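A brief tutorial aside. Many learners find it easier to grasp structure tokens once they have seen a single protein encoded end to end. The record that follows does exactly this for Diaminobutyrate--2-oxoglutarate transaminase. Read the sequence first, then the structure, and try to relate runs of similar tokens to stretches of the chain.
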Amino acid sequence: PAEAILRRQRVRESAARTYARSFPIVPVRASGMTVEGADGRRYLDCLAGAGTLALGHNHPVVLAAIRRTLDSGAPLHLLDLATAEKDDFTTTLLESLPAEFADGARVHFCGPAGTDAVEAALKLMQTATGRRGTLAFTGGYHGMTAGALAVSGNVAVKEALPSGGEVTRLPYPFAYRCPFGLGGEAGERVAARYTERLLDDPAGGVLPPAAMILEAVQGEGGAVPAPDGWLREMRRITAERGIPLIVDEVQTGVGRTGAMWAVQHSGIVPDAMVLSKAIGGSLPLAVLVYRPQFDGWRPGAHTGTFRGNTLAMAAGAATLRYVAEHGLADRADRVGRFLTGELTQLQQRLPVIGDVRGRGLMIGVELVDPAGEPDACGARPADPALAVRVREACLARGLIVELGGRHDAVLRLLPPLTITDEQARAVLDRLAEAIEAAAR
Ligand code: PMP
């Protein structure tokens, strides 16, 4: 039946499908980091629901929370009425957030996906400031609905027309393919100065915007961490000009980068945070959390039918608690350092690895043509065809990885935070073998 399922899916479903669905496997069971196909083959899952599965597949604590809620007779769908499950989730979430941000913050439950929370954030800041434009960054990714897409950078790849208001795109300080041909601290400083000058230049063509939106580590953009100093500069520049700062932690949140929330590395306090993916414990959930002074909405100003599902809240609260109680952010930091360290070693041996980067368990391996002309920062041309071959070679060796980045030439590793040392070793071995085989 697996063959038939794959055939029917290919015929019936949109050709735009992506991620694991483009893999020729029909998963029937999953546990932790392991996915089992209908043919009995087992795979280590380094995609983990695009970073959703902080605790891996079917974690017993998450399953128990879902079962308990199901058996309790609690209403599963109640629009946005008050429930004990929502109360518990909200309390747990606020307790997990940095205190300077969470103290007095408002929580808005959004339609089930990350992109819905991004739309809500952009719209809220337009209401709160009475302005329209948004500042966003090259390489950013915020979702697929009109407003979220408009503030994403890689629109050409997504074959979409950006719409949703005036967006000023600013350079993200990507050390490897660096803007202005300047890497390191010099590049970071120039990127910040450019932003500041553009905003202050009366002929810069930028009206005072409603918000700035950024990721502290770009995910779909290819696991690109922003330097902490640059993030602090963005916070200073926006604060001085009264521009609300929205940090999109849809992918970075819940321990993935080695801190519970990625903003904690730099210590910046945003005006709003957009959260989804892991906060639902593998079920769909998205929230916008913001400082109370931006609460400019009247009742009914921003509604939606599926705003916070009871099961997702129970699964999410259990996940947030488990990550905190078991120090999984520290674990992500430790295993992340081990993986990036080993991959950097591998880079010495395999010149098709142009760059290894990331933070915690949000890791990118950029594949390049080693014979190609280096750019001003020394980066070789990306090799997306090789990346596709490596992804296939990984799958043949029982490893699920996805691609991302500007040229779709970055292998993205987003394993569950519960990955064991043994599994981390196996990921490295399979990845090294796959890259070697594909590059041959
Ligand atoms: N923001 C970021 C940073 C993301 O990584 C994603 C999804 N990859 C989104 C927003 C959109 O989330 P969703 O796919 O759930 O709409």
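Self-check: The chain is about 40% helix and 15% strand. If you spotted this yourself, you are ready for the next section.
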